[in-house]
Write a structure and sequence with these properties.
five-stranded antiparallel β-sheet, 2 domains, Immunoglobulin-like, single chain, alpha+beta, 177 residues
Length: 177
Amino acid sequence: MVDAWFSSVHACVRGALDGRHVRAPRRLLSGLIFAIDRALSSPQILTTQFRDAVQANLGLLNRPPAVPSFGLNTTGPLAITITADIITLKLPVVSLPTQNVLVEGAAPCSAGIRYARHYPFLGFQAEPVGGFSDFTALYVDWYGMPPVGAAIMIRTRLHIDGWTDQPIVTRAIVRPG
């Protein structure tokens, strides 16, 4: 679908792109964990940016956007609280980010696990209240309520016009209340 869309892009846009190659590490929004460390052709760049923008519901890209300058990802370590048998998952936010912050989460796993391969896109980081951004609903909608003793791994990263910066992974264990 994406390749068909790219081939339908106006000829002058394609002509402007076809001769340009960019060498940059890329991490895809689709949850792949490897960095592409090779020269990408312009159709590949636009295709991955288009895929990222569509998955984040940001609309179609008619031209490849310029490579942005990412600010500091101000999300802190994962905080899990249990009050009256209700688990709450929160991320401390030092300052309000000016870009979209993507929240991706791995499935609950054994407390000894320190690495996850798959981080599906859960949603955008909510506005912080009292210095914490609550994403419990996003996580529970995707995986259900995490069991006590399980490790929760969350990955956040900034997103601007189809470009994403390097992710920050945070991990915590659900302790009994």
